[in-house]
Amino acid sequence: MDKSAAYKKLERIRDLPTLPEIAMKVNRMLQEEEITIERLCETIEKDQAIVSRLLKLVNSAFFGLRSRVNTLSEAIAMLGFNSVRNVVVSVSVIEAFAGKTGDFDVKGYWKHSIATALTAKKLSELIHIGNPETCFLSGLLHDIGKIVLYQHFKEQFQDIMGLMSQQNISFMAAEKEADVLNHARIGGYLAERWQLPRALIDTIKFHHQCSNASSDQDMLMVVHTADILSNAFLAEIKDRKYISELDQSAAVKMKTAIRSMQDWLPGLAEEITSACRFFMGEESSISGVQSSKQKDEGKETGEEDL
Ligand SMILES: [Fe+2]
Ligand SMILES: [Fe+2]
């Protein structure tokens, strides 16, 4: 199937994954001008499962707040509207799509997405570019097109997987080789259907090509770099097939953060492990990365710097 036929097929698919209603509403509300804590609370409270997940997350080590947050309005006041939007979308997307993808490696997919989200947040904080919370959400959703590829373009998906293992290449390189409509374009299309903010749509669409003009070039570079670094963390840090795909302009912009990686990677590895446990109820396996606890205990990892 050529790319334009694939695009037409994409437009005709009626049962594309939908963003859960509550996340859609919260997202829409936050793009409006007039918004109050009361209105936001009223909307989120309609889904008590989301409320309890949100409060659990806000009170977890992940946010590191000093005092306990007991109500939704306290959480909104403490975190701010954008963080709440990001948390609601994150929690509901993971809940909606976990376990609904047949033999697709859904756990591996979410581990990579969570690792990319947290790495993007970290890079944004370290380099002082982009909004860390929005970078988190972009990182979490950047590969969402892979789910659509798997669900609706099964043959192409199998070809890609075959090429990856035969030629030991990345997913993106295999898509190029197979000459199919890539997951980034499909994800961008889905993000538009979900009416996400333009900066998020562009980041999802261009996360493998920083040279494209995005409405938020800084966030694009952050997520592009985080994607490649997290692939390296989760696979084999010495595996340079991922690192070679790092865009040169992004590499220059992220230089200081990449150089100091040995200082922040152990703490990030712990965050990734605890986020995977929180969202998926299990450990992530970040091969070879020494957690700060292990570092304190002086254990050896034999790790190589990137
Ligand atoms: Fe990707
Ligand atoms: Fe990715």
Describe the structure.
Residues 284-306 have low confidence and may be disordered. 43% of the residues are buried. The chain is globular. The protein has 306 residues and is mostly helical. The chain has a domain at 3-14 and 102-296: Hypothetical protein af1432, CATH 1.10.3210. Helix content is 66%, strand content 0%. It contains 19 helices and no strands. One fe (ii) ion is lined by residues 112, 116, 142-143, 227.
- The coarse overall form would be globular
Spell the H/E element sequence: HHHHHHHHHHHHHHHHHHH
**For this structure, what is the CATH homologous superfamily of the domain at 3-14 and 102-296?**
Hypothetical protein af1432
Query: Any idea of the CATH class of the domain at 3-14 and 102-296?
Result: Mainly Alpha
Bound ligand species: fe (ii) ion
Strand content: under 5%
The whole-angstrom Rg is 19 Å
Mean pLDDT reading? 82
| DSSP summary: helix tally | 19
The major beta sheet can be summarized as: none
Please give the share of residues in helix: 55-70%
Going by helix content, strand content and strand pairing, the class is mainly alpha
Distance between the termini: 38 Å
Oligomer: single chain
By CATH, the topology of the domain at 3-14 and 102-296 is Hypothetical protein af1432
Architecture (CATH level 2) name of the domain at 3-14 and 102-296: Orthogonal Bundle
Q: Which consecutive residue ranges, at least 5 long each, have pLDDT under 50?
A: 284-306
The number of strands is 0
